[in-house]
From TrEMBL:
Stored SUPFAM superfamilies: Ribonuclease H-like
InterPro entries in the cross-refs: RNaseH-like_sf
Domain of life: Bacteria
Organism expressing this protein natively: Candidatus Acidiferrum panamense
Protein name: Transposase
Length: 247
């Protein structure tokens, strides 16, 4: 809760989110943030939420009084309204979700929202749409080696994360810059951070400097991305740096 509170406070201050603005913002939270303390803290600040409860005992208790099961878009998964929901500082709609497991039986969870018009299927889809964000986190861990980089001191760990954030954005920006040329855009289409770093940013070549400034960039002609990158960098530098293929 302290880390989440500090992060949101920084965002609110930077973007100028008033309470009226926060009432139009929906926060999607997984089970790790599904405690009463966290949810009450967010609800008290006026946010809307789509969240999962992390309390296993509470899930078992709430399952005792539910309505009929309703199918969702995910095969085998169903949801049922909770008739006696857990109380928070603001009104919420709560549902029990059951998902079939490979070895038999079901996995049960509690999904809740403050949005009154969000039906069970839409609620499940809204929660599942976090998958793209989590995929981005996994790419950062693989491409930037975040799992292997741990510091004992808090300040040092903060610096590691700031550098990782910078590297993340540089990779995304570079793909956007290079994709201005149709040929390069076609070649880099579908590249995630891992492939972009391992394939796109490791092309052999030669950089020549002149009086402290980059004078020319030439790529190895044997690399399959050499021609596409040559066109992309030529468009990026706009004649200020000579870009070509080694001969």
């Amino acid at each position: 809760m302290p880390a989440l509170k500090a992060a949101l406070l920084e965002v609110e201050t930077h973007l100028g989110w008033s309470r009226e603005r926060r009432a139009h913002i929906v926060l999607r939270l997984d089970g790790g943030f599904g405690t009463t303390e966290v949810l009450n803290g967010l609800l008290s600040r006026g946010y809307q939420v789509v969240a999962k409860s992390s309390n296993h005992g509470r899930v078992q208790k709430l399952r005792q009084a539910i309505g009929p099961w309703q199918p969702t878009a995910s095969p085998g998964r169903a949801m049922a309204a909770i008739l006696r929901p857990h109380r928070f500082c603001r009104a919420t709609r709560q549902w029990v979700s059951r998902t079939p497991q490979a070895h038999g039986g079901y996995h049960y969870a509690v999904l809740l929202t403050t949005l009154p018009d969000l039906e069970p299927t839409a609620l499940a889809e809204a929660y599942d749409s976090r998958a793209m964000i989590e995929a981005t986190f996994c790419q950062d861990q693989q491409a930037l080696g975040l799992v292997k980089r741990r510091q004992h001191k808090w300040e040092a760990q903060q610096m590691v994360l700031l550098l990782a954030r910078l590297a993340h954005h540089i990779l995304l920006w570079s793909k956007r810059w290079l994709s201005r040329v149709p040929t390069t855009r076609w070649r880099l289409d579908g590249y995630g951070l891992v492939r972009l770093l391992q394939a796109g940013m490791t092309v052999p070549g030669v950089i020549r400097w002149r009086r402290g400034w980059m004078g020319s960039v030439h790529f190895d002609p044997l690399h399959p991305l050499a021609e596409a990158l040559q066109q992309g960098f030529a468009a990026l530098f706009r004649g200020r740096v000579r870009v070509g293929i080694l001969r």
